[in-house]
Amino acid sequence: MEFTALLVEDSASIGAIYSSNLRNEGGKVTHVQSGLDALTELTRWQPDLLVLDIQLPDMSGMDILATVQQRHPEISIIMITAYGSIDIAVDAMRAGAFDFLVKPFDAKRLSITVRNALKQRQLINLVANYESSLPKHNYQGFIGESLAMQAVYKTIDCVASSKASVFIVGESGTGKEVCAQAVHDSGIRKSKPFVALNCAAIPKELIESEIFGHTKGAFTGATSNRDGAATRAHGGTLFLDEICEMELDLQSKLLRFIQTGVFQRVGGSQEECVDVRFISATNKQPWNEVAAGSFREDLFYRLHVIPIELPPLRMRNNDCLLIAQQLLIDYSEEEGKAFTGFDSKAIEIMNNYSWPGNVRMLQNVIRQIVVLNNAELVTSAMLPIELQQAGPQLLAYDDYLNLSPSRDNLPTLVSHGSGNVKPEQALIISNIEGNIMPLWQSEKQLIENAIAHCNGNVPKAAVLLDISASTIYRKRQSWVQTSSVNEN
User: Fold this and answer.
1) pTM, rounded to two decimals
2) For the chain, first and last CA: distance in Å?
3) How far apart are CA 323 and CA 329, in angstroms?
4) By the number of CB atoms within 10 A of the CB, which of 35, 60, 266, 351 ranks highest?
5) Which CATH number covers residue 351?
6) What is the domain-level CATH number for residue 430?
7) Any domain includes 397
């Protein structure tokens, strides 16, 4: 079995013997003789196996064990010492070591321990890979099992440990701050501060001070020095919500801060340097703001490194009921009520509603129901009047493709007897006033438009449509067969 190993042993002669034994087991071994050298090596690369002496000339192996467990918990660790005791063995195992060897030990004893450690590592990886392949129902504050949300979860997992800037786009109420917090909590900065600022909620005269801080006397009311969000977020994450609302002159200062990590407080002359990860969010289409001249293009490219698009609630299939059920249980417990679920009519209405305010609106609706009513099941009569009167809501064409909410690019809408169909309630289907288009043709048109929108990327189109890629391929084949039959 091939593996990589880092051996930390202060004796050169003993280290040479252990290295030889490990190589006989298939290991690619690096031998260092001090704790500092070991930590340096671990910042450059991470081995499959760490064989660590407790007694080192510069520090305790137990301290190294604790550091490795915090930074690289996936590494299997075997502790060795010439001063064996039950207490030390128990402490090492509690701290995360796989096993404990007392000097002197022979090659056979080391071989058995190494093989067992590597087998355990394989098993852990196998279980982790299996669990990661399963759909997640709850993830870092999110509730939802739709394909669209699974894509979001995977993106967060991929970018969490990076320092790359993340740009979150989504309608109001879709959970952009929850997403930003999830990126922070899933990464290596989770023990450091997460500082959030809403650029739209702070007066433009104060936002620079909120970000960078100010000195005493910088402006009226500045009675003392004050740290800004940049200082408070040092080592952690700075989340700038509604970034497109920021004034252009401040955008240039923010750009320099992102590029250099250096800034000046309002009214100050001394430069400060901090280490922060930037996460930004907006409910607008950022490129449209760049084209309109209200958002700097260079700042856009600095922040828009890893994009995450949060789907609106109406695009998330049954997630609405999953979220509503959890909210109902939580709010009922808070308010001392006995609600346990929803009746069939209430479920039908909630499923058919378009939820323009997304999850935030759903939260308010469930809270209102729990506070104003007492029952075991939520009935349709308990729902707000706008939900009861809305009727079935058909998704707009751009909702299927997860496009911008702008209506400028939509085809001309058809008219019905009572007047024009609103974009938010219209399913665009050709020839609706003439011959009814066969269902397979309208479905074909919808899927092909989604694929074109994704530049031919079928898996991405499948995620947006909340179906599997194999379904698209299967339907494409059936369309070819159907077309052939029709031609004959």
Assistant:
1) 0.59
2) 61
3) 10
4) 35
5) 1.10.8.60
6) 1.10.10.60
7) no
